[in-house]
Amino acid sequence: MQKIRNIAIIAHVDHGKTTLVDKILHSCSIFRDNEQTGDLILDNNDLERERGITIVSKNVSVQYKDVKINIIDTPGHADFGGEVERVLRMADGVILLVDAFEGPMPQTRFVLSKAIALGLKPIVIVNKVDKENCRPDEVHESVFDLMFNLEATEDQLDFPCIYGSSKQGWMSTDWKQPTDNIIPLLDAIIEHIPASKVQEGTPQMQITSLDYSSFVGRIAIGRLERGTLTEGMQISLCKADGTTKKMRIKELQVFEGLGKVRVEKVECGEICAITGIEDFEIGDTVADAENPEALERIAIDEPTMNMLFTINNSPFFGKEGKLVTSRHIRERLFKETEKNLALKVMNTESEDKFLVFGRGILHLSVLIETMRREGYELQVGQPQVIFKEGENGERLEPIETLVVDVPAEVAGKVIELATQGKGELLIMEPKGDLQHLEFNIPSRGLIGLRSKVLTATFGEAIEVPDIDVVDVLFVLFVEVKNSPFPVMSGLILKSSVGP
Fold first, then answer.
1. What is the arithmetic mean of pLDDT over 193-204?
2. Confidence of residue 21 (pLDDT cuts 50, 70, 90)
3. Which pTM does this prediction carry?
4. pLDDT of the residue at 499
5. CATH of 305-385, one of 3.30.479.30, 2.60.40.2890, 3.30.200.20, 3.30.70.870
């Protein structure tokens, strides 16, 4: 049986995850010498390319020293945290990337807490050590402190640390001694990430992702936790409501390079794709036909915002899109919930209005833009924060963390804008030639804040608003502050002296 390592690459946004995957693919000779691949190979979605971010997690596979390494690239934005939670179940270990200048950021804490809770072994990479004013040794210590605060085990705290630059294509155990390749990282994966456990018995596989082919329809993707699967085998599909359905596997595929290859048999520990299964959802379990045993379903943190989606009933109806009826919009929204676990859709009293719940403004805006490009025409309402009711009947609202790095001379303007949104300053410290600010702020105070901050700081603000959740693995809900938000609006009557 082939040796397998399943790893997920996790990090804060823009710390170099997808760039690192590029270098691993090139290092393991996935491409021909004369093949033009470009940068950010896995960000193949138009929206990902334009925004420069990863939106959907992706699987690739490489061979190194007779070991197959399945790599899962994950998004870095908190709004797409559902993608990270979903795919971590497929991994045996994680590679945690941390910027050598910025250090651990809020999303670093979020994804790391999920990995530690699942008992995954981490390898820490202090990336971008070629940056000016970088502080690799301090960052290494702060990652250890973060893991300790997240109650990591002794084995997890005894993590290997690799230094390097994904962009320059080198990794080393000592940042003062650069190399010319990323072999030290691949060796660390083989040495420290545990091999997939082989469990004998009836097959068990949880569906953690899905793909679609116009030829064979929906494809279920997951890691085989126990037993073996073969083509033509009869299985049971364990649903969320406790029911089971008998089905037959038509085709089995495993990941190889950037694509998939068909196989007749899949062993325990391998990540595979199954065709022939119908009416499945993410979280369902593929189990034995005679004695089905369901795995615990994936727990996804709840949404924090909602928006109203409705048909376009303006005078310009039908000018841009072709798919304009409520039936089209309903089908598309409910289809999105099949693969986007953090998204929820509710019907309203009106047939042509739908409430869509998401993790944040970016999460919902990506959905709107995707639908627009697919030819849908719709109207959306303002984003609304989701409130909860406490144990004593009090009204609770979500509190999130806002991180801003700005030049010292404009830090006062950012603090003023954040406090207007009921933000509470937690940390104010110098970071190189910038001022590092962290706030606890209600989610409703974040709506529209980005443009205000960029205007007030003349475009100098970085990481705005890089919102993430703190507290117990999710947003902290606190009692609503009754004082209203100040409305800073007006009309310019005169801006200069006339002749």
1. 85
2. confident
3. 0.79
4. 64
5. 3.30.70.870
Compute CA distances 313 → 316, 325, 382, 383, whole Å. Answer: 8, 10, 17, 20
Give the domain ranges of the chain.
Answer: 3-192, 204-288, 305-385, 394-479
Are 383 and 356 within 8 A, CB to CB?
no
The values of phi and psi at residue 40, to 5°, are 50, 60
Is pLDDT above 90 for 30?
Answer: no
The domain over range 3-192 is classified in CATH as 3.40.50.300: yes
CATH topology of domain 394-479: Alpha-Beta Plaits (3.30.70)
Cα–Cα distance between 40 and 16 in angstroms, integer? Answer: 10
Is-same-fold flag (305-385; 394-479)? yes
The token duo for 288 is 């034995």
Does the pLDDT at position 470 exceed 70?
A: no
- Taking a C-beta distance cutoff of 8 angstroms, is the pair 465, 451 a contact? no
pLDDT at 441: 83
Place of tokens 């509190």: 399
For residues 289 and 393, give the distance between their C-alpha atoms in angstroms, rounded to a whole number: 47
Say whether 277 sits in a helix, a strand or coil: coil
